[in-house]
Amino acid sequence: MELDRNGFNCIDLFKYIMAYAVVSIHIGAMGAYIFPAPVEWTIRQAVPFFFIVSGFLMTRKAVCLKGKALQRFYVSRGLKFLRLWGVWALVYLPVCIVSSWGTGSFESLARSFALNMLFRGEYAVAWPLWYLYALAFYCFAMAFTARWRIASILFVMVCTGLMIIQWLYFNGLSDSSLVRYTGIGTERNFCGAFYVIVGSFVYKMRECRQKVLPGLVLAGLSAAMFMVNAPFWPAIGGAGFAILTTGIVLPASRIWFSLREQSMWIFYTHMYVVWIFCNMDLPDFIRTSACLFSVAVLVCCGLLALALWRLQRLPSCRFLTFLIK
Questions:
Q1: Burial 260-282, CB ≥16 within 10 A → b, else e
Q2: Distance between CA atoms of 173 and 57, rounded to whole angstroms?
Q3: 248, 271, 291: which is the final residue of a domain?
Q4: Residues near 309 by Cβ (< 8 Å), separated by ≥ 6?
């Protein structure tokens, strides 16, 4: 069991916290709730944080590899993420069918499902899947460009450009055709890859002795940019939190390993819980309160993750580990 991971236990703690932030994002989307600005800014750091930390940890392992060894590393990682994506796509298939049934013909739904999964890596309520799909996309792109520096630079430029285009689109500053014709729906994969690239740059700060202050400065800058709706505030905030977690050293303990695995269970399973709650006949005082509804969903997600984590530790249920690793 990996207890210390070379002083990065704070990353495991923050991953557990940010997993709940991802749940909160989807609670707001599914339940049409509007959170206060400070809450909205905090939870919106979660997705960039997960990608940036993934980039940080992958770069940590890839930095000493070159040539074919580096290519093999990225291919193996890409295949791992693609396997996890495929498994969870099957897990979410029933709820995708139920949630979409009756909204169109079988042919149109099947076509929509296939196109969304192929180009975006997600469908309907299976929103967590695009994270795995984007990570696989990044790894395969890096494996392809690893031998040519100019290709790697071009990949970084394309990811950054599509990130800007997506921001313009979602803020109403660009016609939707600009997004449609610059990636055919794959811009989310490029944007996910952009955050992973940010994580690789964060790794380059590993020799910096003072990390807490830069992390706090970036987080504060992100908050200020959020207030004026400036571009890239999630990337800056996510990078700030990532730097902050690498600068805080927590004592070695088995709890960090357990929180790391529970964060994965929360991340991958939470949309089932959110979907069930959104379709339950709940009392009005819960349904109309974003706070009560969110607390109920978050508690259930945490309990489900804890139960699955304990279950996977049983000799007869070791196969469950296949779903998160």
A1: bbbbbbbbbbbbbbbbebbeeee
A2: 35
A3: 248
A4: 258, 261, 262, 265
Q: Helices 212-227 and 233-247 meet at what angle, rounded to 10?
A: 160
Q: Retrieve residue 99's tokens.
A: 């949630």
The answer to whether 167 and 101 are in contact (CB under 8 A) is: no
List CB contacts of 123: < 8 A, sequence separation 6 or more.
Answer: 92, 96, 112, 113, 116, 117, 129
Query: Which of 324, 292, 275, 229 minimizes the C-alpha distance to 26?
Result: 275
pTM score of the predicted model: 0.89
94 lies in the same domain as 220: yes
Q: Which of 91, 81, 89 minimizes the C-alpha distance to 189?
A: 81
- How many residues are present in the chain? 325
CA dihedral 235, 237, 241, 243 (to 10 degrees): 60
pLDDT by residue for the chain (325 residues), tens only, comes to 344 455 688 999 999 999 999 999 999 888 767 788 899 999 999 999 999 999 999 999 888 888 889 899 999 999 999 999 999 999 998 888 888 776 777 787 888 888 888 888 888 788 899 999 999 999 999 988 877 777 777 878 877 777 777 776 666 555 555 555 444 444 678 888 889 998 988 888 776 777 888 899 999 999 999 998 887 888 899 999 999 998 888 888 889 999 999 999 999 999 999 999 988 888 888 878 888 899 999 999 999 999 999 999 999 999 999 999 8
Q: Measured between alpha carbons, how far is 249 from 243 in angstroms, rounded to an integer?
A: 12
Helix spans in 146-289 (H)? 149-170, 176-180, 187-203, 212-227, 233-247, 254-278, 284-287
Structure tokens at 69: 């060894």
Give the C-alpha separation, 267 to 18, whole Å.
9
Number of helices and strands in the chain (H, E): 14, 0
Q: Which domain holds residue 65?
A: 47-248
Owner of token pair 């709820």: 95
Do 124 and 211 share a domain, yes or no? yes
Q: Are residues 219 and 79 in the same domain?
A: yes
